[in-house]
Amino acid sequence: MFEHLVRKVVRDIDPYAWELSSEAVAAKHGLRVREVIRFDLNTSPFPPASWNAAMEAARADGQPNEYFDTSYAELADLFAAYYSVGMDNLIIGAGADEILDITTKTFLDNGDRVIVSTPTYSMYPIVSEQMGATVQRVPLQADFAPDIDGILAAAQGAKIIWHCNPNSPTGNATDPAAMERLIADAPCIVVVDEAYAEYVGWSAVPLIARYPHLIVVRTMSKAFGMAGMRLACGIATPDVIGMMNRVRPPNSVSRVTARVGAAALRDIPAMRANVAAVIAQREPFADALWEIGAHVYPSVTNFLLTRWENPAIAQSVYEFLEARGMVVRNFSSHPLLPGHLRITVRTADENARLLAALKEWREQRER
Predict the structure, then answer these.
(1) Is CATH 3.90.1150.10 correct for 3-47+269-366?
(2) Rounded Cα distance, 125 and 129, in Å
């Protein structure tokens, strides 16, 4: 009835696709919600540091009826210390997706062009297309490394290069020298999304001092265990941040999220211990998946991309696990990743539960 009033670019967008919610999975298979384990979202199995104390501090504020500090001064100070930048190098938002959205609102006009390596995080085309931009896709190379020459050639006349490092869903990181070459030679804005940077141990943030067209996006959703709270920041030169602040929503980060985020940023050793615990599980988990029959790609992140015998087998694995309350990311019918599933590395007990289910699946298949 109202479709003719919707912007054409919105009607034409291929929307982001989620797996079923934990509540829907539980209802579908007769499980309790707490029995469902998310192996699909690359989240931490650990809550953020000082969670209980931070929530108590938020309750003690006693001001849910009042807006929070729109400058996020406390958070900005802590982010600046963590990333070794100035407070004027930062823009804070409700999750990395809001930082991506702010970036497109700052730089893209209708008809502009952006460059995306594929496969990668599917929100880059979505946030670009919603501003009327066109997306040019440059395939990753056979080993999932970015095609730097191809990206730079495509970027002539473009406005933004989107680059996920480490990349999702492939799990690999760009070589640091290749990364600097991409940034140095790019004729446009380069946005490096470092959602998984804590797992790989290096960042493009120091390059901002040399390359004023670089924006780095960092999130608290993964290593810091705050996916349900929504907190992230963009890091760039003060001039770029000043422009981005013109379109930043004034109060998208709640005082509760800010309290929890501040507590987490004051306890970096706790975050690093949680990251180390996940990394310690990664290789044993990968080895066990290989033994069950999956091809497991190398990963420097908290997830593993796996390839199965064919798309039908991958779909079978996905459905078998979901029925037992374990949700993995389903790429079985993805045009670039047919027969693939992405699996988050979680705790030893949770990983063991998934492996036990896969062994059951294999035994049933072999009968």
Answers:
(1) yes
(2) 6
CB atoms within 10 A of CB 330: 20
Q: Determine the Cα angle at 211 with ends 209 and 214, to 5°.
A: 105
pLDDT tens-place values along the chain, 367 residues long: 677 788 888 888 888 887 899 999 999 999 999 999 999 999 999 998 788 888 888 888 778 888 888 899 999 999 999 999 999 999 999 999 999 999 999 999 999 999 999 999 999 999 999 999 999 999 999 999 999 999 999 999 999 999 999 999 999 999 999 999 999 999 999 999 999 999 998 999 999 999 999 999 999 999 999 999 999 999 999 999 999 999 999 999 998 999 999 999 999 999 999 999 999 999 999 999 999 999 999 999 999 999 999 999 999 999 999 999 999 999 999 999 999 999 999 999 999 999 999 999 999 987 7
Name the segment(s) of the chain with CATH classification 3.40.640.10: 51-267
Beta strand 303-307 pairing with 37-39: unpaired
| Residue range(s) occupied by CATH 3.90.1150.10 in the chain | 3-47+269-366
Is the separation of the CB atoms in 192 and 214 below 8 Å? yes
* CATH placement of domain 51-267: 3.40.640.10
d(CA 290, CA 147): 28
Q: What is the pTM of this model?
A: 0.95
